[in-house]
Structures are given as C-alpha cells and as structure tokens.
Write a structure and sequence with these properties.
Length: about 190
Amino acid sequence: MAGETQSTTEATHAGTEVPTEHHSGPFPPFNSETFASQILWLAITFGLFYWIIKNVAVPRISGILEDRKDRIAGDLSEANRLKEETDEAIAAYEQALAEARAKAHGIAHDTRAKLKADNEARREKAEAELAKKLAAAESQIAEVKSQAMEQIGDIAGETTSALVEALMGKAPTKTDLSKALKSAMD
C-alpha cells in the first residue's frame, strides 16, 4: 500500500508539478521557432479588432459625432435666428422710440403754438379793455378838466377876492375882479 499511495501522489503531482530546470532559450515572444504561430495569431487578432472597430466602434462614434454636429448646427442656427429677432426687436424699439420722440416734439410744438395763440388773444383782449378804460379815463379827465377850467375862473375870483380883502381890508368889486382875471388868464 505504501507503494500505491506513493504512485497516486506522484500521479496527482505529476500534472501540477513545475519543472525545476531553467530555460536557457530566448524570451518566448522572441523565440524564432514560434514566429509563424505568433504572426498568425497577430494577424487573426488584428483582423478581428479591425473588423470590430470598423463595423461597431467607428459607426457608433461617427453617429455620435454626426449627432453632435447636427445639434451644434441646430444650436447655431437657433442662435442666429434669435440674434436676428433681437436685432429686429431693437430696430423696432428704436423706430418706435424715434416716432414717440417725433410725436412728443409735435405735441409740444402744437401745445406751444396753442398757448402762444391763447396768450396773444388774452393780451389783445386785455389791451383792448385797457384801451377802452384808457379812453374812458381820458374822456373823464377831459370832462373833469373842462369842468375845472370852467370853475377856475370862479375859484380864482373868490380866492383873489379873499386875498385882496385880507390884505387891504376891503373886497374888490366884481368888475375890477373880472378885468384882473381876464388879463391874468390871457
């Protein structure tokens, strides 16, 4: 049995044992005996990777790039459209502002002209009323003056008579008084 256990142990270890001898040959990828199989597997692997990249990765990447390009183009066209709308809105605003300013200037001019005409009419009315009052005052002054001129002789006569009487003690006669007043007035 001892012999059996030893052979079983050797059999189980035979597949798992690592040879203890050193490899004295070149590095396996550089071994010239395996070049042909390495080149074959390199060509198969390269072809497989090339086919996967060409048929799977590149179309996906191309689709993503195309989507991005379309999205960027759409965004740029939307930005240009919005910019044009903004420019149109600014132009419309400036036009409306210019029209409003012109309208305001027109209203101000019309209002100034209306106020000037109203003031001119009031001034003319006031001047006409003043002219009437002035004419009435001048006629009243002329009337008072004529009345005063008519009475000046009587007043002057009475005053002169009172002065002569006060100075001389005796009042002058009416004929002497009227002669003296006539000669003084002429």
